[in-house]
Every structure is written in structure tokens, then in C-alpha cells.
Design brief:
With 361 residues, the protein is of the alpha+beta class. It has ten helices and 14 strands. It folds into three domains: 62 residues, no CATH class; 148 residues, ATP-grasp fold, B domain (D-amino Acid Aminotransferase, Chain A, domain 1, 2-Layer Sandwich); 67 residues, 2-Layer Sandwich (Dna Ligase, domain 1). 30% of the residues lie in helices and 22% in strands.
Length: 361
Amino acid sequence: MLAALDRDRFTVLPIGITKDGAFVLEDDDPAKFVLNAHALPEVQDNGTRVGWPESTATRELTVTDRDGVIRSLGDVDLVFPILHGPYGEDGTVQGMLELLGLPYVGSGVLASSLGMDKHFTKTVFQQAQLPVAPWRTITAAEWTQTPGRARAALDELGLPAFVKPARAGSSVGVSKVTNPGQLADAMALALAEDDKVLIESALVGRELEVAVLQGRPGEPTRASVAGEVVVSGRDFYDFAAKYLDAAGIELVCPASLTNDELREMRGLAIRAFEAIGAAGLARVDFFLTESGWVINEINTMPGFTPISMFPSCWLATGYTYPLLIDEIIEVAVAHALGRTRRQVTAPAAPASVPVPVSPVL
């Protein structure tokens, strides 16, 4: 993304988060963050510290350099939180940005939290009459105190099944269980990532994904052509395949679908996007089974690597990578301006009623 951003239009402030949670001013150097299967890029603590606005009256960021000198980074128009997993796409950093009054790309606190939690995603989808795979949720306490519940769920759902953390990303902690003897190891792996685990029926069918973009205010939500994940030499589409280009997976985009199949898939994806109140962008993952479409999950901040499906689907739909980034930013800015105008023009409350103070985005 650093390489694709149009520097004639945007001034970029790359902010990294170290493993210890420090916000540092990073180098504007795409080469530092190239994916490497042998050494994944990491944000190092370079001694700088980014300072966030002290109130919603300003959007000015500062940085304290290694020598202790504080300098201004200027006013920020928009934050693009390119983050996965807990504290990144679960509504946590989105809540921080809301409190600071900084507009940002993507879904808000609730939609981010819902999209991150597979149990509640499925619950909301069911309520919206969207098709999902059967599942049972087991907490860490239940597994410790009454492990028979998980085994009964496995018997009920049948084999093979998937065991996955409810709130983790990029297929981390996910196992495919093909016999009951594998359940304990699968639960241990999933519980290392979260204290809530889903046991889910494995589906037989094609694995397809579609990318979604929100329209500007008053415009409809859009869906791309479909991409297909063809699994040949792996149990499933895991972390190594998603980010390290591991063998055994082929990504096909556009996928071969009939016009009716693509129309139905796009419609379901947009309904899923709107069911959780998503904003900006998302990727919706499906299985196409003999009985029809089943939604696997929604990702509210999808991967943007060169091998990721979200940009691939939009490239196949007609966007270039830089134009896609431009569109995502422009949509976010348009909605932020719309919210600001509504707050400015809202009728004043009666003087006798206390008015809560909210950050203006």
C-alpha cells in the first residue's frame, strides 16, 4: 500500500506499532515491509513516539524523536488502519480513533467487533436470514469443566469439522478435525488464541470470495467479481497460503460462475455487509455447495498483499491497485464529511436538556 499510494495526492505518515505496543514513526519505505516467507517484516522500536491529538479540537499529530525533541507532523485528514486480528480490526483501535475525533477507513466499533467475533457474526447473519454453516461455541471454562459438550458437538456436527478461535484472524489457531482423537489438540491450539472456540461443520463445495466496497453517501454498496480458492495440496486455506504464498493453493480470479450464481453471490455479500453495519470495505467468504451458497465469514479489513483476494477481485473487476486505494480513501472522506455536516446542521436541543459531547469526525 505504501508503494501504491499516489504521492501527488496524499502526504503519508507511516505509523507502526511495535510488539510492545509503542506507536513509532516509521520510514516511508515499502521495501522494508515486503513479505518474506523466511523473515516476516516487523516494526522495530526506533526510539520515536507518535503523539495523538490531546482533544477533538485538533487533528494534529506530533512525534518525539530519539533525542527528545517534539515536532509537529501536521493535521491528519484520515487514518487507514491496516491492521489484522485483536486490537487491530476488532473495534479497539477504531474506538480509540473515535475518541480522538480522527476519521478513519473501514468499519466502526460495532461492525468491526461483530466481524471479528465469528460466533456473533453467524448469530447476526442467521437473524438476517443469511445462510451459514452449522456450529457450536465452546468457552475455555466449558472445555475445562465439561469437555463432553465439545465432544457431543463434534458428534452432532459430524466429521470432518473445523475448530477455530472465535476472535482471531488470518486462519491462526484453526484446525481441521477428521477423527475424535484430534479434538483435544485442536481445542488447545484454538484456546491459545482466544477463550471462545467454534466447532463448525466442514462444508463440501467450492470456496469463493467476493470483495465489497461501500458507495459514497447516497450511492449503493458494490461487489466485485468472484475469486476462487482451489485447495489441492493443503487441508485448508491457512496462514502460510494467505501470506507466504505456500504451495497447495491456487487463487483463481475471476472465478468461473454463471451470471445467476454471481448475481446471487454479490447480493448475499452486500446483505452480509449491511447486516453487521459495515463501512468502507470488506471481503465476504463463501462455500458454493450442492444446496447453494453458504457464508463462511466476513473480513472487515481484508488483506492487501499482492496475493490477497480483495485487491485481486477488484483488479479483475477493472480497478488498478492505486485506483482502488484512492477509491477507498475517497469514500471514507466523503462519509466523514457527511457526518460532520449532519452534526453541524442538527437542531439544537432544548436548554433544559443536557447535551452529551461527542467527537466530531
